[in-house]
Amino acid sequence: MQRIFFGRHYALAVVAIIFVALLAAAGLRSTPGVLMVPWEAAFGWSRQDISFAAAIGIFLFGLTGPFAAAAMQRFGIRATVIAALAMMGLSSTASLFMTQTWQLIATWGVASGIGSGCITSVLSAVIVNRWFVTNRGLVMGLFAASTSTGTLIFIPALSAIAQDHGWQPVVICVAAAMALLIPLVFFLLPEWPSDIGAVPFGADADHPMEVRERANPLKTAFGALGEGLRSRTFWLLSATFFVCGFTTNGLVGTHMIALCHDHGMEAVAAGGLLAIMGFFDLVGTTASGWLTDRVDPRKLLFAYYGLRGLSLIYLPFAHFTFFGLSLFAVFYGLDWIATVPPTLAIANRAFGIKKAPILFGWIAASHQIGAAAAAFFAGASRTATGSYLDSFVTAGFVAVAAAFLALTIGRKGPQTA
Question: φ, ψ for residue 8 (rounded to 5)?
């Protein structure tokens, strides 16, 4: 019997469930940025030490992606997502008892990085390619926007809790959110449209049955990597996505609140600034998905990286006034994660929709390597010089360079029906 959702195709319910899961994972990944100053005050740890733990988490967040995509093929989406939620919840809870930096690395670096790495753009790509034939760009944009929505919801709230009650209640809220999502995924998330007697959204009634593979996840992941390494498109997408991570969650997501603190802003006000950015990215990334279905994705990437780079170069000269920061928040926020839909569209075109999610996982890994590098080196630079100026300006020029690199990505490639 085909299951429906308020009279609509059940794919819309799947979108809602995955959106919420992605939102929660984004909130967890934002937490070290919120707690950097409270941890510094509570334990006496340097920002370099805390940034190192955050960098480990970001790196594993990206590296887990291709293996998570392969695990979804072998064990199923539902089992993989539930295991990831459990890992994130347990590691957050365990961090309540930490007293040394290695415990910070183990909980908020290793365990949360691997867990959240299963609930990221790779999961989005698998869902989009399984459940949709039309409107893939729009749905991918919506999923990518969930990251900014997580910022919009979590960071101001968590910043207020940390400011009024300390860091432990923040961790408890994050752990509770992960636990509450497990039954939602278990009871309401089918593996395939055919499991509920449906076809993918936008498909004809005679749409062919999906091919279900049970290959070894490690073999599948590394096999896809071997194919990607022989492709110029793969290298160019990885290079530009490295810059994407370097200029977003690694730098701004991890250090923006600490940067604002250096200029006399309270944590709640700084969290509100990130919330404004999150709101505009929700708009910009969803619009990016819509545009990806209609415009050459290379041109979109050129515009996104260029605008982001100019915004980062401008930030240190905004004087941290309300007008200056608001201007930055709007223009930077519009394309924070807007690069995801066009990047996946190019990967689908170049590698086919069957292989694209795993290869996109490896491309996303380069994103998180870039993010990890920015998280660590910005913290190290701040510790050494007392300022974030060099880190933000350098990232801006790197983003402008990536804008021109995006135009060199090949347009043509095989597309699997």
Answer: -115, 175
CB 335 within 8 A of CB 141: no
Average pLDDT of the chain to the nearest whole number: 85
Give the residue carrying structure tokens 């790509």.
Answer: 125
Nearest-angstrom CA–CA distance, 193 and 365:
28
Check residues 387 and 153 and name the one with the higher pLDDT: 387
Residues in the chain: 417
Q: What is the arithmetic mean of pLDDT over 350-367? A: 84
Q: Does residue 49 contact residue 103 with C-beta atoms inside 8 Å?
A: no
| Model pLDDT for residues 193-209, shown as the tens digit of each residue | 888 888 888 887 666 66
Q: Which two tokens stand for residue 121?
A: 């753009």
Torsion of CA 337, 144, 270, 96, to 10 degrees: -130
Low-confidence winner among 3-12, 262-271, 279-288 (lowest mean pLDDT)? 3-12
- Report the percentage of the chain scoring pLDDT > 70: 92
Q: Quote the CA–CA distance of 105 and 46 in Å, as a whole number.
A: 14
Q: Is residue 83 a contact partner of residue 114, using CB atoms and an 8 Å limit?
A: no
Q: CA separation (Å) from 380 to 48, 96, 100, 170?
A: 5, 26, 19, 25
Distance, in Å, from the CA atom of 24 to the CA atom of 154, rounded to the nearest integer, reads 8
| For residue 414, pLDDT beyond 80 | no
Nearest to 153 by CA among 267, 22, 27: 27
Instruction: Tell me the domain boundaries of the chain.
Output: 4-195+215-406
- CA proximity to 167, closest of 111, 110, 85, 107: 107
Overall average pLDDT of the 180-205 stretch:
87
For position 210, what pLDDT does the model report?
62
Residue with tokens 């490639």: 413
Indicate the SS3 state at residue 412.
Answer: coil
**Is 4-195+215-406 a domain of CATH 1.20.1250.20?**
yes
Closest CA to 200 of 135, 146, 118, 137: 135
Chain center to CA of 168: 24
Burial class (CB in 10 A: 0-12, 13-18, 19+), 256: buried
Please report the DSSP string for 258-289 in residue order: HHHHHTT--HHHHHHHHHHHHHHHHHHHHHHH
